Amino acid sequence: EPEVTQTPSHQVTQMGQEVILRCVPISNHLYFYWYRQILGQKVEFLVSFYNNEISEKSEIFDDQFSVERPDGSNFTLKIRSTKLEDSAMYFCASSEVDPGSQYFGPGTRLLVL
Amino acid sequence: GENVEQHPSTLSVQEGDSAVIKCTYSDSASNYFPWYKQELGKGPQLIIDIRSNVGEKKDQRIAVTLNKTAKHFSLHITETQPEDSADYFCEALYGGSQGNLIFGKGTKLSVKP
Description:
The complex is a heterodimer of chains A (113) and B (113).
Chain A: E1 5-7, E2 10-13, E3 19-24, E4 31-37, E5 43-50, E6 53-57, E7 65-68, E8 75-79, E9 88-95, E10 103-104, E11 108-112
Parallel strand pairs in A: 2-11
Antiparallel strand pairs in A: 1-3, 3-8, 4-5, 4-9, 5-6, 7-8, 9-10, 9-11
Chain B: E1 4-7, E2 10-14, E3 19-25, E4 32-38, E5 45-51, E6 56-59, E7 62-67, E8 72-77, E9 86-94, E10 100-103, E11 107-112
Parallel strand pairs in B: 2-11
Antiparallel strand pairs in B: 1-3, 3-8, 4-5, 4-9, 6-7, 7-8, 9-10, 9-11
């Protein structure tokens, strides 16, 4: 069964550093999403992406964040100048239609020290 | 602002009993309502969803009901099993297609054998 994959599974970084989280969505899906989940809290929507551009973004997704689909398979989330409060699980998801069934990746645990 | 209220935050039931989790939403234009199950250390997994043009959907032991007038939707799990123990999140789509997807705060379900 096709699945969304994410790399790395976990990353530790120093405050102020840039990180890039990578996702490979399911191959025939056209809509891509990033979410984050701070430990013990609910999942929060960050951004949706379709046709090589951002469709929607939340208040969390400020100028510190950017997304890119650099090739036909990868979907990346870049966090510039990380802050302590960026520590969270980051989930990528993809869907064939929107709105539609979203399939989540296993997540990347980011720890900012 | 946009919000999804989810209750209860924790739910403990005996194996074989039913479990019901309820979410309310504020945007009457919301038209897509998925439910996710999240096991410890894993990403959310879609278990059932419903669109605003139907009132109920069932898949084996899981059902979702939608009351558009009252703006709430509920997850029903019958004949609960210990493996149903997990965090459950509701989600509502705001802003139409490709809009924001807002998660509820989650319900920790414990099924006691």
